[in-house]
Amino acid sequence: MIKELIGRGFMVTINQSVDFATASDVAGAFNVQVSPKAMDASEGVIAAEIEEEENLRPRPPVVTILGHVDHGKTSLLDAIRQTNVTEQEAGGITQHIGAYQVEANNQKITFLDTPGHEAFTAMRARGAQVTDIAVLVVAADDGVQPQTLEAIDHAKAANVPLIVAINKVDKADANPDRVKQQLAEAGVVVNDWGGDVEAVEVSARRKTGIQDLLETILLVAEIKDLRANPNRPAIGTVIEAQLDKTRGPLATVLIETGTLNVGDFVAVGAVPGKVRAMFNERGKRLKKAEPAMPVEILGLSDVPQAGDRLHAAPTEQAAKMFAQQHAQQISQEAQAVARPMTLEEMFKTDNQVKDLNIVLKADVQGSLEPIQVSLERLATDEVKVKVIHQGTGNVTDSDVLLAQASHGIIVGFNVRVEPGAKRAAESASVDVRLYNIIYDAVEDVRKALIGMLEPKFAEVHEGRAEVRQIFGHNGEVAGSMIVDGRITRNAIARVLRGGKVVSEGRVESLRRFKDDVREVLAGYECGIVLSGVANLQVGDVIDTFRKERVAGDVPL
Ligand code: GDP
């Protein structure tokens, strides 16, 4: 078989695996038929993700800290970490590995060490939801701020319960009651206001209220009844990964279920490996890691990506196979994602979208509510319409992330898209639609829901050229100077003479010296041949345009 494979250009060794199509081809050469067989747990390959109820044991909660900038997220994470250093570990140097564990009332709690809703939702957008509980930090002197509201919506969209930590209560101008009132206005009603959200007053600086906060987290965790099976091969998620110059690829993995042992073979996303060593956040060597424990692992063949899943495998072969399958899956998914999911397509018959999640941005507060009401009123028996986040100001990166993680769209009213967010939306295929007429926005969504919204295109001016010379056998080549923008092959072209359009066609070919080129920029001369246009004259102006999809009634 190896000879046969090498003959086909596969340089393989005896213990290497090949994909099914190749295996099937090779078998054909020996007149043997093969059929694919799914890997399953009974063969000791990769254990299934579904758990038997009786094998589940309580596991620690995984907590993320959210909140407005400067309200004390980092300080709170530090304060929690410091109050919890046990005697023998006190000398150890804490390292940032992306997560850490502390103890309260003899129970463990895991904190993700990258605070903020951007990181939280970025993980979710990658398909990994590791957080069980979100702690919302609000500074008692500053109150609810725009990113506080954003954080609330991001946690809600992820269906993660909130605990409020009212921070900086040591400050003279601290006003916890005002914070509670503002939160109530934002739909987060705390306990002593008759709601069901726990709130704790803390000072990250003075380290007060920390124990209270930890106990509250345990209380909320208990209600969630978080459980996992420690007696099975591990499954986890990569929180952080990097290449260390001396130690090689390092990944911090949060174990979700099962126990990971030193010596285990693993597939981490598309990367196979064998766990050579594991460390906790204090650099202490560990032999095993149980559910909800964050560990830094050594022994991967390459650097995986944050959000990648780890699967322990019984053999090296199984780990490699699993990693390889994952790599194939990624490339297939990447191709699928490349096709954007626009509002126009979402509710066409072949797409089974059941909810339309909308991130709504407007220039002023007063516009948000009426637009939200009008949009949500469009819901039908088949499709729910939900504004998962609304806020004033331009469309930002974090809006794009939220829409991506929630498979939704963004509707902007009298706002613009920030440059970074525009790039992010393009690469994540998030449909951003801008309007300055409310009726148009509502009407587009209404039509989309019944599969009747058709894509709109607009002509965008691309470039301008002045004809300086005519040549070619039939006078078909216009020797021109590009005076503005760029001229590209296949662009729509209009010829102006004396300020009036005299003819329209397409850019058939572009030449610089002897070469055919795709485009020519302003400041250069070139030869242009237009199709569908006759009788070009010296002094004519050629304006070119391209067609672009327009989402909404304002271009991005
Ligand atoms: P983050 O942006 O939310 O991570 O906020 P930081 O943790 O960086 O804190 C922002 C600022 O607030 C820093 O100058 C902290 O020293 C200060 N700070 C944080 N917590 C407290 C607190 O409990 N009391 C007081 N007075 N200042 C605090």
Task: Describe the structure concisely.
The chain is α+β, with helices and mostly antiparallel strands and 556 residues long. Helices cover 26% and strands 33% of the residues.
List keywords for this structure.
556 residues; alpha+beta; six-stranded antiparallel barrel; 29 strands; 33% strand; binds guanosine-5'-diphosphate
Please tell me about this protein's structure:
- This protein is of the alpha+beta class and 556 residues long.
- The chain is built from 13 helices and 29 strands.
- A six-stranded mixed β-sheet has the order 3-4-2-5-6-7.
Describe the secondary-structure layout.
Blueprint: H1 2-7, H2 20-29, E1 57-58, E2 62-67, H3 73-83, E3 99-104, E4 107-112, H4 117-125, E5 133-139, H5 146-157, E6 162-167, H6 176-185, E7 198-201, H7 210-224, E8 227-228, E9 235-244, E10 248-257, E11 260-261, E12 265-268, E13 271-279, E14 285-286, E15 288-289, E16 294-300, E17 309-313, H8 316-338, H9 343-346, E18 355-362, H10 365-376, E19 384-392, H11 397-405, E20 409-413, H12 419-428, E21 432-435, H13 438-449, E22 456-471, E23 477-488, E24 492-497, E25 500-512, E26 515-516, E27 519-521, E28 525-531, E29 541-550
Parallel strand pairs: 2-4, 2-5, 5-6, 6-7, 18-19, 18-20, 20-21
Antiparallel strand pairs: 1-8, 3-4, 9-10, 9-17, 10-16, 11-15, 12-13, 12-17, 13-14, 13-16, 22-23, 22-29, 23-27, 23-28, 24-25, 24-29, 25-26, 25-28
Helix pairs in contact: 4-11, 11-12
